[in-house]
Amino acid sequence: MEGDREDTNDGYWEDTDDGYWEDTDDGYWEDTDEGDREDTDDGYWEDTDDGYWEDTDDGYWEDTDDGYWEDTDDGYWEETNDGYWEETDDGYWEDTDDGYWEETNDGYWEDTDDGYWEETNDGYWEDTNDGYWEETNDGYWEDTDDGYWEETNDGYWEETNDGYCEDTNDGYWEDTNDGYWEETDDGYWEETDDGYWEDTNDGYWEETDDGYWEDTNDGYWEETDDGYWEETDDGDREDTNGGDREDMDDGVREDTNGGDREDMDDGVREDIDDGEMNRNSARKERKWVLCFVLFCFFFGMRTTYTGKPMEKCHSLGIIEHHGVAFPPRNPFIVKESMKKAGLKEGKCCYDRRQPGHKNKRSYIPLES
Fold first, then answer.
1. How many CA atoms lie within 13 A of 68 on its CB side?
2. 3-state DSSP assignment of residue 292
3. How far is CA 257 from the centre of its chain?
4. DSSP state of 280
5. Per residue in 244-256, pLDDT tens?
6. Which of 81, 87, 138, 342 has the greatest number of beta carbons closer than 10 A?
7. Which intervals of the chain are annotated as region Disordered (predicted)?
8. pTM
9. Where are the domains of the chain?
């Protein structure tokens, strides 16, 4: 089909009889019979007879007879007779007679007579007479007379008279009069008058007046007034009012009101209130009964061995201490002692004077 590329015998694609690119004998593509680019004998593309780019004898492209770029004798490109860039004797490009960039005697580029960047005596670029950046005596760039960034005496950049960042005396950046970040006395950045993060006295960032994380007195982050994690007295994070995980006394996170996993006394996480990962209820009940028995045992042992008067001893074998009745270590001894004294209740104390086995010891009623 005419106009479509086809394959030559060497595997390159060419076009048939309509002026599109085809393949030459060396595998480069050229065009036939209508003046578009074709291939020269050295594999560079040139143009035939219509002023497009062609190849010079040294392999660089130049233009023929229409003022486009061409190649000089040293392989650098220059321009002929229309004010475009050309090449100087030292290989740097400059401009001829139209105010575009040209090259100075030291190889730096400057501009002639139109206010564009040019080069100063020390090789830094500055601007002439239009308020663009120029170079100061110490080699830093500043601006002249228009409020853009300029350079301070210590070499840091600051801004003049428009509220953008400027430099403080210690070289940190702060802001003037618009509420953006500025620098505190300890060199940390804080924010003024809009509730964003600022710096506390210990150098940690905290937040003002909106409930985001802030810093506690020990440098740990905690949260204010919305139930996110905060820091406990032992440095572990816990939750307030939110029902998420908090920290127990053993340092393991558990859940409060949320029904997710919590920590048991053995350090294993379990779940409450939603049936997931739960220990069976009988085991929980046995656990609480065991705790109560142990409490009574240790408390009863403490009271029965003090030798101090109890409040009341009942003939039923119960001791009432501070208004709370509980079974002593051996209620049968109490019952036997009260029975021998013929009393139903009364103050009594443990008789430590009687030697022998603990089961032979008795309580001595003091009064009815």
1. 10
2. helix
3. 31
4. -
5. 444 444 445 454 4
6. 87
7. 1-120, 175-278
8. 0.16
9. 1-39, 154-210, 216-279, 302-367
